[in-house]
Amino acid sequence: MSEQEGQPLSAAEAAAGAALIDALKRNAGLTIGIGIIMVLAGLGAVIAPAVAGLSLTIMVGFTLAIAGISQCVLAFKAGAFGRGLAMFLVGAIMAFAGFYMVSQPVSGLASLTI
């Protein structure tokens, strides 16, 4: 139970709360630093949206390519031929779309925008 419900905290709850507060105090500087970096990155995206959009398109392209290749590899481990073939085809389409987005980021950005 908690103090809000009128019951005192148990020793385990109090220890967990103290450990959490201690961890927050130790990592406060890191948290503030990451927050400042995120604010600066957000301001950069507002100032130069084309650069932010193109970099996001390239990141999405790499993610699609890696996921597609992984799915193609996984398709060979599928038990049935039909299911494996479907997984392989979907993985190949994902990999193709990812490689296309990386090689043609402006077209990829247009497709993400639409």
Describe the 3D structure.
By secondary structure, this protein is an all-alpha fold. Helix content is 83%, strand content 0%. The chain contains 5 helices and no strands. The protein is flat and about 60 Å long. The relative contact order is 0.10.
Q: Rounded to an integer, what's the Rg over CA atoms? A: 24 Å
Structural class by secondary-structure content: mainly alpha
Main β sheet profile: none
Helix content: over 70%
> Span from first to last CA?
51 Å
Please indicate the percent range of residues in DSSP E strands (runs of 2 or more). Answer: under 5%
Number of strands: 0
Oligomer: single chain
Q: What would the principal axes of the Cα set say about the shape? A: flat
* Spans of at least 5 consecutive residues with low confidence: none
Helical stretch tally: 5
Mean pLDDT: 88
State the order of secondary-structure elements, H for helix, E for strand: HHHHH
